[in-house]
Amino acid sequence: MDAQSRGRADDIDPADQWVLNPQTGNYELRLDQSAGESTASGRTAASGDSGRDGEARIGPPREGGGRRGQAGTREDAPRREVPGQRSRRSSQGGGRGAAAAPAAGRRKRKAPKARRKKALMWTGGVTAFVVVSAAVGVYILYERLNGNIATVDIGNQGNKNVLSDGPMNILIIGTDKRTGKGNEGYGDKGSAGHAETTILFHVSEDRTNATAMSIPRDLKTAIPDCESKQPDGSTLAIPGIQKERFNVSLGQDGRDPGCTMQTVEEITGIKTDHFMMVDFNAVKELTTAVGGVKVCMAKPVKDPKSHLDLPEGPSEVQGEEALALLRTRHSFGNESDLDRIKVQQQFLGSMIREMKSSETLTNPKRLLDLADAATKSLTVDQGIGSPKKLMTLAQEIGKVDPKNITFVTMPVKDNPEEPKPITVVVDDVRAEPLFAMMRSDTSLTEVKKNAKAAKSKQAALLKGPKADPSDVRVDVFNGGEVSGAAFATVTWLQNQQGVLKSANKANAPEKTKKTKLEYAPNQADQARALAEMMGLPAAAMKPGTADAEGLEAMVLTLGADFKGAGIPITGPAKLPDNVEKASADKEVCAK
Known about the structure:
Elements: E1 18-21, E2 26-29, H1 42-47, E3 49-50, E4 56-57, H2 97-148, E5 150-152, E6 168-175, E7 195-203, E8 210-215, E9 220-223, E10 226-229, E11 235-238, E12 241-245, H3 257-268, E13 274-278, H4 280-289, E14 293-297, E15 301-302, E16 309-310, E17 313-317, H5 320-327, H6 337-355, H7 358-361, H8 364-377, E18 379-381, H9 387-397, E19 405-409, E20 412-414, E21 424-426, H10 428-439, H11 447-462, E22 473-478, H12 485-496, E23 501-507, E24 516-519, H13 524-534, E25 541-543, E26 554-558, E27 581-583
Parallel strand pairs: 5-18, 6-13, 8-19, 22-23, 22-26, 24-25
Antiparallel strand pairs: 1-2, 3-4, 6-7, 7-8, 9-12, 10-11, 13-18, 14-17, 15-16, 19-27, 20-21, 24-26
Helix pairs in contact: 2-8, 4-5, 4-8
């Protein structure tokens, strides 16, 4: 008789032939089934619990109870365990007689719950262990990366939030501070860390493109008054300097990166959201973490000062050699800082390509090394001062394709006040269009497309008759960041444009990011005239539906995009031809 047919004569399920023996705590297979009456013997108690009317319940405990049947037992029956079930000892003995049966039965009915509980404890324990282990790993990694990052309190400068709804401007500063092993030969001895290499990184509002503008360290400019938080928590007020090198906007007289941010805003009219500051070690550690950066030389380079030794054509540099390349100036171009900037931009473009390559993104160890090296090297503002915030910012910037990242150098010219110029000054004719394009969030990589769109919108806006300036009536409100903007604009309109019917209405009810001109349909000719004078973009024009009555004036609300009276809000769609630019996705050999 096979296992399936055993016991079928009495309509007993074979599964019910497994019986819990409370004396041993094990399940036993009872193959000898008899129809005898249960007795009050110890064997009866061992083989099943007493049911109603003296019937014995047999079989392994199951959800909802076992089947009812008649049970007989053999004390010499072989004892086996249910496969997969752990053996266990009962907490109570079997006992004698009928009085022991109910007790044994209670243990049997609770067994399914006990088994499920053990299973849940086991699987739950394993899951908890995995989750907790992962959490501990993430926590340790987070603490490791978080402990790497240094932050600076820059007071009211910058953006307290990681991201902004509009464009983002990040100031990247490389200092000449001699920190780290092997860096004694670089930079100025005893330097607190000047702004040796500075890049204003502008990311467009739609995150499709970016402009990286290098600022020469030897630029002579005005450094404004600023405040710097000291280690003891106090605030140091630092007076400004006229006609000083840009690089001393950091480190000199206790100036912190917030002072450098203010200086950049003073020069360009562009407000920065965050800063990232690195030292010499950053170059060495980051280039090592990515496994080297590909570079190309137009001719062999053997520089006795930096000890850079590279052949003509492609090479790969990392660590000390990468730093030497970025520090070299006497082997490229006319040996000026401006030519060194070109090499730095080519290097950064290659590094961006390497970081975004599949070899880096699919290599967990390399990614961890990169994150570790990056955070060890960084000093940032408190708005991005944690791994999570930096990751959020990196993911946002990472949306930009390298082919749409444009490197450009702030347009400058030789300082006319020096007989033999060793410093430079801003070339306003070439620089202002670049600044205006960055302020108006115009891409440098899609110039033709943008120029066509801007031209068509502006043409439609200005199409039609324009009122004489003396007939333009407008109330001006200040909803932007420039103090006294409404007053200055009205003064400019009246004195230089002949708009005598303009009125200063002081501060707007609330701040606004974008400048807007609200006007009625019968004021369209006035709106066109004012838009042409002020360089208002098409998006700023807000026509109403009802005609104005009597002497009702248009309403001009200056927003955060307004930089000063007479400065067009719209930026040009094209850079001047004599402003050089390069794309991050192109490999160029250094000359």
